Amino acid sequence: MSGDEVVVLLISGMLSAVAWGMWFTAVARLGRPRGSPREGQPARAPLAGSPLARASVAGAPLVAALLLLAVLRTVAAHDVRDSTLYTTFYMVLGAAWVAVGAWLLPAVGLSARDDALERGNPAAAYAIGGAIVAVALCYAGGNIGDGPGWWVVVFSAALSTGALFLLWLGLDAVTGLADTVTIDRDRAAGIRLAGLLMASGAVLGRAVAGDWVSTAATARDFVLFGWPALLFFVAAAALERSARPTAARPAPDVVTYGALPALVFIAAAFAYIASLGAAA
């Protein structure tokens, strides 16, 4: 390994160890009492949401790691997939990348600690789980194909991840979806958002995949192949008008307004990716 790769590995390793250590420590506290109340204060509730919500928060990083490992071992550059050392290097860099993505969630109105863990909000847990997998998909796409070094992966992943968060910010500005998830605690909205993010992460990751030519070529291909993600967010904005909770329907059906739209987004993403064929 070169000197710069050693530095990147050390920084990524320390960042990911701290970030995910804190993450899983917090998840381990789910369902446990938050400590004895002080005299004169009411007992505090456990940190647990539903089992599925806990699985979303705890399992999403593991799913992300497995997805990335599969990519690195099958469609990454030859010198990566044939080397345990470089597979480990890009796994650790990916762990740090996804950790940074998790830290950015409050910018789009979600907090793993506050919403999913402290308040036991299942809707937020579903959305956060989807966001973690989506960021991993964005990073994984940057690892597909041959390239001259780690900075190529970072550049490509920055394009896809940045676009994901910008589109998400735009959706929230138009629809107030973060409030639907965190304040209304609408489970259908959380599942719907998770599906949208994973579908978009898959498309945006595919848009930066392929052998490296130049920054200009990568940016051009990103626009050429990544545009369906914009359509997903436009469709999601239109859907929010009819799917959000109302006085007459305070708790929209989870299957009709949550799981079904999520599956449609994911199916559309994979159909589009399949139509593109293998990244060149």
Structural class, from secondary structure content? Answer: mainly alpha
Helix content: over 70%
The rough form would be described as: globular
Beta-strand share of residues: under 5%
Tally the helices: 12
Radius of gyration: 19 Å
Order of helices and strands: HHHHHHHHHHHH
Distance between the termini: 26 Å
Extended strand count: 0
Quote the average pLDDT: 90
List the uncertain runs: 33-38, 41-48
Largest sheet, if any?
none
Structure, explained:
74% of the residues lie in helices and 0% in strands. The chain has 280 residues and is mainly α. Helix 1 crosses helix 4 (84-103), helix 6 (122-142) runs antiparallel to helix 7 and helix 9 packs across helix 10 (215-226). It is globular.
Looking at this protein, list some descriptive labels:
12 helices; mainly alpha; 280 residues
